[in-house]
Specification:
The chain contains 35 helices and 23 strands. It is an alpha/beta fold. The strands form five sheets. Strands 1, 2, 5, 6, 9, 10, 11, 12, 16 and 17 form a ten-stranded mixed β-sheet that branches. It starts with a helix and ends with a helix. It binds ligand 26Q. Ligand 26Q binds at residues 128-131, 134, 280, 282-284, 286-287, 292, 369-370, 375, 377, 447, 476, 665-669, 687.
Length: 820
């Protein structure tokens, strides 16, 4: 005890700003809030104490913002998303509060290691990848820009699975992120909401003699909000993320209880609670699973009820709802909100349909994140009817309205009306959620310029022709607080020394000033030293996790993202095989060595994606142990890619692999995180790569591959991947090596499905792009050999990537869509 008392006293005189109380408050939280004594406390106990200390500091900001919302005439942004991939909170809040260093010192004064304490935090993995992480970046920027916002989503008890690798294959482990307690959330049982499901509808006549419909549900569950504070960078306000947990309506059902069926009643409670139990692990493949529809409806119904209840409690009219709330739909996952709000206005509040529809459309805006047909959500009619019978009736009604609008603008064009219908009556029938979202919103946006163009030209073409003014493009962005300041503190310190304090609030205007330091030898060598140190840190992490030793002087070439065939991790693999074979022949040993790092999860049921993970491990095993190859080329698979691992990878990246088939990746955001951290991109003209290349300059970007139009032309002509195999000796050797079992201990069957697919169909045109990719990888190494040239290109990538801040994205949403 003595140590703690004297250390706490020590903390009375730390470096500026003085935080005499911090250490004492931490000990207070440990003892009073958690009933632990300092001597017996575990690292996790200390983490909880530190977290509560930070949370308490922020509560005032939060309450202040809430008071302002109730007083002022502001429009609140409600960001509705089935996913929020926030990453760990502790250090992020400390950066925002300018308390990271004082907290380090306070913790050190207690004789403890801050990094070990911070590492105790389980990151909330409430998303798969890009879309969920984007929602988290947007929440960060909304707070930093001091816009009033609420993020609405689901408090999954199990987030995205943890990935472990066994014998080169992915195995999934349940993510028990709540196991150790979550100090960041505040439960609000008093703000619970009831949500109905299933059942049927019936007609009735209201007191004014109007024919009305009511929904007689089969089940009712309760949604309980859990609030997490979202601080902004150096600002006095804060927003919140409100996530819903599903619970049984009562702790037990009295009727069953009276019948003596206590266990049956508990059973029903368990069934209700499954709704928020687990994040579906598939992304980009929409499958008609009832529980997934129930999840979507559950959080949307809770959130709208929450908004309406607050709105009415302030004594406001229904008509003013769209003036007070701008609801952004993060893809179609929450798009049932369109039908739900329409239902609430008509069935519950008795509005006339025309008025209700007008209010609905003024409320919602829809962001599309995909061009892949299999990712477009569609629900089979029988399933939809059994879960949401009343909503289906209303959607049929909306369909009639939509048809009338189409007829007025394109008379007699029944083919068009059929293509655009919300309910597709072919076969068993389907509800097309992208059509519901488009019809029910006043704004529709894609997430990069190319993506929006393709939406307008292709996926949503008919909607664009009907409502061209609804469409807009908002290129994605990432928060520089997490992905620069937090992930790369040394770089942040250099930028503060070079650009002055405050650069992090507006990187779009501050980073370009780096160009005036381009010739400064001292700055350049610091720049290199920082990257080198980040590579050493990553190498140490890789050594500790998979026991592989990396050479920090080699080029760190990284591809980290979900595994998908369209993202083409197997094209990366083909290049590695080709390069290994060259080295084996003695070619290319005069060029700099390269370390290829790959990281990412595959959906548990995505056979081909999992096979590619195995292949990469097979290649790693062959390459890393070969003395003719390993000095120049190593391959490391970094397991369990998540936000925490990402924060180690991006700062160490020198070459960013953004190699999707042109026209498939809506935007990408990892591409932006790498560029901001001074990596160069090797990439196709896909998603936001196009804009990154424009921003950083074509000389500072390694472009390869077919364009979107060329891809379409090749497919239209009848693509024959085998021709490339026949004509390109190195390509043939690489594929033959896989087929021969070189990466599967002689097993010729393991990768057969992959090889057959590549030679037979090759939907994502790996073989067509192989030669230009491999040649460009040669250019990369030649450029890397010239240290000064690479340094210049690296600095320019950072200096010119400021527009890929999510602050810029949010300003655009605000100016063009929310006008909050
Ligand atoms: C849908 C229905 C049923 C089950 C799962 C899903 C589902 C879940 C997640 C469908 C899609 C997703 C995730 C999509 C996603 O992350 N898209 C990415 O969004 C990023 C942010 O805009 C873009 O940068 C990426 O290009 C895009 O792939």
């Amino acid at each position: 005890m003595e140590m703690f008392r004297s250390s706490a006293a020590h903390a009375a005189a730390p470096a500026s700003p003085p935080e005499p109380l911090l250490a004492r408050v931490i000990v207070d939280n440990l003892t009073r809030r958690q009933a632990h004594s300092p001597e017996g406390a575990s690292t996790h106990d200390w983490y909880m104490a530190v977290a509560y200390t930070v949370r308490d500091r922020m509560v005032e900001r939060w309450l202040k913002t809430a008071r302002e919302v109730s007083r002022e005439d502001v429009r609140v942004v409600a960001y509705m998303s089935a996913e929020f991939l926030t990453g760990s909170h502790l250090e992020n809040h400390l950066i925002n509060l300018d308390l990271l260093e004082p907290m380090r010192e306070a913790v050190a004064s207690l004789g403890l290691d801050f990094d070990a304490i911070a590492a105790e935090e389980e990151e909330p993995g409430l998303g798969h990848g890009g879309l969920g992480r984007l929602a988290a970046c947007f929440m960060d920027s909304l707070s930093t820009l001091q816009l009033r916002a609420i993020g609405y989503g689901i408090r999954y008890e199990y987030g995205i699975f943890d990935q472990v690798i066994e014998d080169g294959a992915q195995r999934e482990i349940a993510d028990r992120w709540l196991h150790g307690g979550n100090p960041w959330e505040v439960i609000r049982p008093e703000a619970g909401v009831e949500v109905a499901l299933g059942g049927r509808t019936e007609g009735w006549t209201d007191e004014r003699g109007r024919a009305r419909i009511r929904w007689i549900p089969e089940r009712v569950i309760t949604g309980i909000p859990y609030d997490t504070l979202i601080s902004g960078y150096r600002v006095e306000r804060a927003n919140m993320l409100r996530l819903w947990k599903a619970e049984a309506r009562e702790s037990f059902d009295f009727q069953s209880f009276n019948r003596g069926d206590y266990v049956g009643a508990v059973d029903e409670a368990i069934t209700s609670e499954t709704i928020s139990k687990v994040l579906y692990p598939n992304d980009e493949v929409a499958r008609g699973k009832q529980l997934r529809l129930e999840q979507q409806y559950f959080f949307v119904a809770c959130s709208l009820a929450d908004m309406l209840r607050y709105h009415m409690s302030q004594g406001r009219t229904l008509e003013s709802f769209p003036d007070r709330y701008a609801v952004q739909l993060n893809d179609t996952h929450p798009s049932i909100a369109v039908a739900e709000l329409y239902r609430l206005f008509i069935d519950i509040h008795g509005l006339e349909p025309d008025a209700a529809w007008d209010l609905v459309r003024r409320t919602f805006a829809y962001t599309n994140h995909t061009l892949m047909p299999e990712a477009l959500e569609r629900w089979p009619l029988p399933l939809f009817r059994s879960v949401l019978p009343r909503h289906l009736e209303l959607i049929e009604e909306l369909d009639v309205r939509l048809r009338a609008e189409i007829e007025a603008r394109f008379p007699g064009d029944t083919a068009r009306a059929g293509r655009m219908a919300i309910v597709d009556h072919g076969g068993e029938g389907q509800v097309r959620m992208a059509h519901l979202a488009s019809a029910g919103s006043h704004a529709i946006n894609g997430v990069a310029r190319l993506h929006t163009e393709l939406l307008e030209r292709d996926v949503l073409r008919d909607f664009f022709e009907l409502w061209p003014d609804k469409f807009t493009s908002v290129t994605n962005g990432v928060t520089p607080r997490r992905f620069m300041a937090l992930a790369d503190p040394d770089l942040a310190a250099l930028l503060t020394r070079t650009l002055g304090d405050g650069w992090l609030s507006d990187i779009e205007t501050s980073l370009p000033r780096l160009e005036s330091h381009l010739e400064d030898a001292g700055f350049r060598s610091e720049w290199r030293a920082i990257k080198r140190r980040n590579k050493e840190l990553l190498a140490a992490y890789v050594q500790a996790t998979i026991g592989l030793e990396l050479d920090p002087s080699s080029l760190f070439d990284i591809q980290c993202k979900r595994f998908h065939e369209y993202k083409r991790q197997h094209l990366n693999a083909l290049h590695v095989i080709t390069q290994a074979r060259r080295l084996k022949r003695g070619e290319g040993r005069d060029l700099p060595p390269r370390t290829v790092l790959v990281s990412g999860k595959a959906a548990p049921g995505y056979f081909m994606a999992k096979l590619v993970i195995r292949l990469l491990h097979g290649i790693a095993a062959a390459v890393n142990d070969d003395p003719d190859v390993a000095p120049w080329l190593k391959v490391a698979f970094v397991p369990n890619f998540n936000v925490t691992v990402a924060q180690k990878l991006y700062p160490a990246g020198e070459l960013s692999e953004q190699i999707s088939t042109a026209g498939k990746e809506a935007s990408g955001t990892g591409n932006m995180k790498f560029a901001l951290n001074g990596a160069l991109t090797i990439g196709t003209l896909d998603g936001a790569n196009v804009e990154i290349r424009e921003a950083v300059g074509e000389d500072n970007f390694f472009l390869f591959g077919l364009t979107t139009d060329e891809v379409a032309a090749v497919k239209a002509r009848g693509y024959e991947p085998r021709r490339h195999y026949d004509e390109d000796r190195e390509l043939r050797d690489a594929i033959d090596a896989i087929a021969a079992g070189e990466f599967s201990r002689g097993d010729r069957d393991l990768y057969r499905p992959l090889v057959d697919h590549l030679l037979g169909r090759d939907d994502f045109l790996l073989l067509a792009d192989y030669r230009s990719y491999v040649d460009m990888q040669g250019e990369v190494l030649r450029a890397y050999a010239d240290v000064e040239r690479w340094t210049t290109m690296s600095i320019l990538n950072t200096a010119r990537s400021g527009r890929f801040s999510s602050d810029r994205s949010i300003r655009e949403y605000q100016a063009r869509i929310w006008k909050a």
